[in-house]
Specification:
Number of strands: 22
């Protein structure tokens, strides 16, 4: 086995959090960092064209091609579970939507972790630190950071009319979905630069790659973590990985930082002997640390896709189903970097309440001027729009578990969607609310007709059943290495993201979230990496 060298820090995973960590840690010239990524470089054309996610998801060049187990809550359906396998990780294939969540999310984290540094007022400066908002610096937004936030370069009459209908249903129009104002609708702001996707590889890793103290290795598959027993206890000393047909080890003098995501990080921990001892033994893995919470607490946003046929208004279904229309779309993007090719997968957003007595919105809408049966299928031949709605704080919990001791075998992903009565009730209420919006006077001129799931589902029980038929992931898995207090038996990391019982090992990605954020999860993951990097460097300076 060949040595790949000795470093201060090894970052496992060149995705969203890994790119941020590499950037922040190597700002200090005396810090040597190795970044390991299983995928390749982000030099595939379709990564950078916003609509190119259609060519990246389901593509082995950029996607791990994971699938869930058959899910009872979805009537036995298994789902594709896209995860980025490329520098930039899922920020290279995601929906580009800039969303932080609600202030209450982080207050809840702080309470569970027993650490006030996770409160909203403490993490807001971290969001602003990396942000470059198109309107400039303000009380809520930052300017000059790496993470560009822009308006979308498009508008659709059908989306504007849906927004009017939402207003007539009690959901106000607002300017900023990240202002923490509660209910409201607006076009999503996106992580793009002049109509081109901005992933974390371009934003954070590209400038850091010029530094001599950063080593980036792609096509490297981490098989397991390495440990030694010391007087202070078990310590992680580095990693064992393969690349280019060779086996390597690399040593971290200070820390190894797992940034492989909500699926990859628990998988690597389990393969290394950290997890539920009985599960590990079942796969012939000797337990090094019995942490039953590893891989548990899986949370995701389940989007309920309702499709409505319309008449007398343009949608992408009708403008992109012939070569002339496609040519016009291509020319608009080529000359102006605008139009449908600059589209994020969802364009209009809204936050709403499933019940008026709630203190804060618990539903998020992603509204699109198009429709299709499922991801990857062709657009319908009729004019239609899709209104997807998800429960922001689901109570259902799933898990990620290794299928064998083979590090190349995909893990078993079991989301357990709609497995609680509370989630089923909210799903039914969400579908009913969508119908009320579509029935508002503003949309009447387009004569909307429900195509999916269909008007035959009426009672709460029938709507809950329909939710299982139309529900699908919106690609926000989190929580599988959650943080918590030291007396929490299911917490995997402490509030500084250090793995319990193992020295010199942290997890820094979306898996540490104790509760999913109320919105898209990519930018909260950047904040987590910002905070971890600050804590790591502060600890280094104190030694």
């Amino acid at each position: 086995m060949t040595s790949a060298g000795q470093y201060d820090y090894i970052v496992v995973g060149g995705g969203t959090s890994g790119c941020v960590l590499a950037n922040r840690l190597t700002r200090h010239p005396g810090v040597e960092v190795l970044l390991l990524e299983a995928g390749g470089r982000d030099d595939y054309m379709w990564i950078h064209i916003p609509v190119g996610y259609l060519h990246c998801i389901g593509n082995p060049r950029t996607d791990w091609l994971l699938r869930t187990e058959a899910d009872p809550g979805l009537h036995g359906r298994a789902l594709i579970y896209p995860r980025g396998k490329v520098l930039g990780g899922s920020s290279s294939i995601n929906g580009m939507i800039y969303m932080r969540g609600q202030p209450a999310d982080y207050e809840r984290w702080a309470m569970v972790a027993g650490d006030d540094s996770w409160r909203w007022e403490e993490v807001l400066p971290l969001f602003k630190r990396s942000e470059d908002h198109y309107l400039g610096a303000s009380e809520l937004h930052g300017a000059g950071g790496e993470w560009r936030v822009e308006k979308q370069r498009l508008s659709w009459k059908i989306l504007d009319t849906f927004r009017e209908a939402a207003l007539q249903t009690g959901i106000p129009k607002i300017d900023d979905l990240n202002a923490g104002l509660g209910e409201g609708s607006a076009y999503f702001e996106v992580n793009q630069r002049r109509g081109i996707r901005l992933n974390t590889a371009k934003a954070f890793l590209k400038p850091a790659s010029k530094r001599p103290n950063l080593t980036i290795m792609t096509g490297c598959h981490v098989e397991r973590l390495l440990f030694e027993d010391t007087e202070q206890g078990k310590v992680c000393t580095g990693v064992q990985f393969t690349g280019g047909g060779q086996a390597f080890t690399a040593t971290a003098h200070r820390e190894t930082l797992l940034a492989a995501g909500a699926v990859g990080s628990p998988q690597i921990l389990q393969l290394s002997g950290i997890g539920d001892a009985s599960e590990l033994q079942r796969h012939g893995i000797a337990p090094r640390m019995d942490l039953p919470g590893v891989g548990g607490n899986l949370q995701d946003h389940l989007q309920l896709r309702m499709i409505f046929k319309v008449r007398g208004v343009k949608t992408l279904n009708t403008s992109a189903t012939n070569w002339f229309g496609k040519s016009l779309i291509g020319l608009e993007y080529a000359f102006f970097r605008s139009g449908p090719m600059s589209m994020a997968p969802s364009q209009l957003g809204a936050f709403a309440k499933s019940s008026p007595d709630l203190a804060a919105p618990n539903l998020q809408y992603h509204v699109q001027p198009l429709s299709l049966d499922k991801f990857g299928d062709p657009l319908h031949r009729f004019s239609a729009f899709t209104a997807s709605v998800c429960n922001l704080q689901p109570t259902s919990r799933g898990h990620v578990r290794i299928a064998s001791g083979d590090s190349y075998a995909p893990p078993k992903i079991t989301p357990n969607y709609l497995s609680t009565e509370a989630d089923r009730k909210i799903a039914a209420a969400a579908l009913a609310l969508t119908r009320r919006i579509v029935s508002a006077p503003a949309l009447a001129k387009y004569r909307p007709e429900e195509f999916m799931p269909g008007p035959q589902y009426q009672s709460e029980e029938e709507l809950a059943h329909a939710a299982g038929l139309v529900g699908t992931t919106i690609f926000h898995p989190v929580g599988t290495c959650r943080m918590g207090r030291t007396d929490d038996p299911l917490a995997v990391v402490d509030s500084r993201l250090r793995v319990r019982g193992i020295g010199k090992l942290r997890v820094v990605d979306a898996s540490i979230m104790p509760f999913i954020t109320s919105g898209n999860t990519n930018s909260p993951t950047i904040m987590i990496a910002e905070k971890a990097a600050r804590d790591i460097l502060a600890q280094r300076e104190s030694l």
